[in-house]
Each structure stands twice: as structure tokens, then as C-alpha cells.
User: Fold this.
Amino acid sequence: MNARRLSVRFVALGYLLLILVGPLSMLFWRIYREGADKAWAAITDPDTIHAFKITLEIAAIAVPLNTIFGIVVGLAIVRLRFPGKGLVNAFVDLPLALSPVVVGLSLFLLYGRTGWFGPWFQSHGYRILFALPAMVLATVFISVPYVAREVIPTLREVGDEQEQAARTLGASAWQTFWRITLPSIRWAVIYGVVVTTARCLGEYGAVAVVSGSIQGQTETATLRVQDYYENLNQAGAYGVALVLGVIAIVVLIAMTLLKPKEGTA
Amino acid sequence: MSISARHISKRFGTFVALDDVSVEVTTGSLTALLGPSGSGKSTLLRIIAGLERPDAGEVILGGEDATQLSPQNRGVGFVFQHYAAFKHMTVRDNVAFALKIRKRPRAEIRARVEELLELVQLQGFGHRYPAQLSGGQRQRMALARALAAEPEVLLLDEPFGALDARVRTELRSWLRRLHEETRTTTVFVTHDQEEAMEVADTVVVMNQGHVEQAASPRDLYDKPTNPFVMSFVGQANRFGESWVRPHDLKITLERNGTTSEVLIDRLVHVGHEVRAELIRDDGERLDLLLTRDEAERLELTAGQIVYVKPTRETTFEQPAV
Assistant:
């Protein structure tokens, strides 16, 4: 019994080391070998800094949008009865099932010169593709499910009796949401926001298709890694990748700190 | 505030929860909605509170049509079976909720909350969270919360259903006393006939989405209008075409013209009373209650043949369903 438990733990830990920790440590090792100064130069390069700025800008738009969307859709799915609810519920998961490249491609087709919306925007002087709007659209699409998926089970578990009680005590629907519903799902929302943020910062495939990867303009941090790598500046690629890796670790720690609180909230 | 529910119907899918139900509750009364599960009693209470919309019929509160009003605007206090405590708030904030919503001055809120906590005997618990309270304490907190805005109607949905027997009896008499003090029109739902008879001054017996009878506890027991009420409120034996309460059967050792012959199947001693489970010669089972003294005087034993005769029986025009 004890031996079996130990071996299960060993396999789980070994798997994690091999799949997750291994590659990340490899990054450190390679930077050390290629020269930390070269990596630092790559990280502090104006185009790299711009790439991080763009990445954060996109996240700053996509995360709040999907947080609000996730809460609204979660409430609709759990609290309301409406036709087509199953379909909405399934559609929320679509970005999880769909490859980001396909998302990027469909946006490309939609807003391209011959797409449904492309010509309209073009004639009104808006640039969608190869610019921030398309990158935001792609990232928003990719990161839709995370807040909703955290909020839905929590809403189910909390039930609606507290909300009903608030209503009988004189609270309006809006007051009930702010004072009762939101506080009782707050840990799920925060957790969802952290995951969504991580997903937005790491997005590559869909953004790669629609952004055009123009250095210093439409290049995100992940695209910057690719850029360095293709141009044989390996130390640069490793350096930027390492920054992304550190962000991931910070996110991971934040998630671990938040998760146990769910039970007591 | 008086409550009048008129011709209320409500279905959930194909299940008929309420079928043309009308109930009158007079101002200041303490009314019980009593019935087995699925009788529609909770649904009726929730419709009065505005938590559920009726398919047909109207709810009149204090003479005014409230059918279309949201629960927010009905001025009704509601207490849930499972407390519905605001888990992320302290006891004090729970109780203060209705007052904060109404934007009362802070000093007034503080004073009122202290007063309410004292009323429900939770002084000193104000800083705790609901998770740190026992079931009985949580329900008292929920009551204080419902009373905070001085509702003219207090509705309680199986308020003591989730509590253990001792706490339940305690809270029962407490609710009775509270009502005597405040005289707030109160309606509570219960499936426990003893609870309804003990606490309420009017009991509405419901069954399968209908009202079977609405009367004082005493009239309900003594003058039931149909077999369902007869057998649901207190115990009753079928005795040929009529019904007899277990204590309205007289036992004798000798036969006479009007007695029925029975076999004593079992004798159960319950405190100072003895319940005799009898089998009549036609196979019908009867329960009979007598005092221990009487049982000892007659030297009753299981397996014995004795004779019974009703001292008081009730007949209904229609036979039991």
C-alpha cells in the first residue's frame, strides 16, 4: 500500500519534471552557456520591450472583456432558462477544442480583403489585420472559456438561495449581484482571471497568423522569441523565453495560493 | 398586514404544484401551512413572497394586489429551511443587510442590530461568520435578518426542518413567544403536524395542490372535514364506515352487543401511555391508546382476545380515497 503510494507519487513527480520543469531549466542552462550578457541585451532591446508592451496591452483588453463575459455567461447558463442554452454552453468551450491557428485563419478570412467584414472596415479607414485590433480579437477568442469555466461550477455549488434572501430583504437585482453573487464567487473569478491572463500572455498561434509579426509594431513577446530564434540569435530567444517562463512561474504560484481558499470562501 | 391568495395555480412542467388554491391569512395571526411533501405548501409560500410567479390567480397583501411585485418590493420577511446565510458576511452584517440596503444612518443600524441580536439571543456572536455557528444559531440569525426591516409579514419555509429534535422544540416555543410580542402576521410551512398544532393559531392543511381544510388546531382535530385531515392531523383508525381516534376506543374484557372482537398483537409502552396494536376479526388493524393504570388493571397481554367499542367516531359523506 505504502510502496504503491510512493510509486504513484514518483511517477507523477517524474512526469512533471520531465514535461514541465526540464525544458524550463534547460532555458537557464542555455542562457548560461550562450552568455547572459547577450540574453540581457536581447531582453532590453527596444523592439523586445515594445513586444512586451504590446503583449500587456492585448492582455489588458482581453482579460477584462472575458472576465465580464465569463461572469455574464456563467450567470446565464446557471441561473436562467432559455432556448439554446446547451448550445451556448458548448460554444464557450469552442476555443479549447479549436487550434489557435484555425482561429487566426478564420479571422484572416473574415477581415481580409475579400472577407465579410474586411471591405467595410477598409473603406472606413480602419486597419484590422496586421494591427492591434486583429491581435486583440484573436486573443479574446482564444481566452474566452477560462473565467466562465471557473465561475459556472461555483455558481452551481453556491445555489441561488442567498440571492433570493437578498431580494426579500429589499435588494434590487443589481445590488444582489454586487453584494451577494460576486462576493460568493470571487475566488473563482480571481482564479479565472489569473488563468486567462496566463493564456493571453502565452498566445502564439492565432496572433501569429493575423499580426504579420512586424518588428517593433505588431510583434508580441512570443512572436519575438520566434523572431530571435529564426534569426539565429539563440541567446536572445532564450532570454525572452525565460522572461515568459518566469511570468508563468509567478502565475503558477499565484494560482497555488488562490486555489485552497476556494474551499473556505 | 393581511394576506389573501386567490385562485392560485402553478405547474412545474407537467407537475401540478397548486391547483386553484385560495387561502386567507388575517392580520396578526400565526398560520401554518401543513401538508406532506409535494402538497404545494412551500410553493404557495414562495408565491406569497414573490419568489415564484403563479400561472394564475392573485396575491393580495394588505388589501393591495401584489401579484406583479418583485420580492424586493413586497415588504415581506422570508426565512429559508437551509438558512440562506450570507456566508461571506459576519452575523452583524447579515442582520444589517436590509437596513444597509435601505441606507439607514449608521448609528441607527448599529443600535437596531444589537437589539435584534439580543432578541434572538446571539449577543456576542456579531463578529462571527455563519460557518462558525450551529444550525440553531444560524436559523436565529436568519430570523433576526428577516425581522431587521420590520416586515409586516414574516414567512418561514420549514424553518426548523434541518434542526435536531431538541433545538426544534426550543425554537418552536421561541417563535410562539416572538409572535406574541411582535404580532407580525406570520405564515410558516411544515410537514410536522405536531409543530403546526402546537405553534399556529390557524392551520391550513394541504394535499396534492389543494387546501383540504383551514381551521384552528382544535377544530382540525375535533371536526376534520374529510378522511385525509382526520388521518394526517393526529392518528386515526378506520372503523367500518367511520373513523376513530386511538384514544376514543374503549377496551373491555367482555363482549356486549355493540363491541367488536380484536386480538392484541402488540403492547407498546410510551411513557405513561400504552399503545395497543390490535387486529380485528376481519383483519383490519387498529391502534388504541390507554393509560398504563388501565392496561394494568385489565391485565392486558399480547395474544389476548378483547373487545373494543368507539366512544366517539367520525363519519364522512364520501368514503376514503
Q: What stands out?
A: The mean pLDDT of chain A is 89. Chain A touches chain B at residues 161-162, 164-172, 175, 179-180, 183-184, 186, 265 (CB under 8 Å).
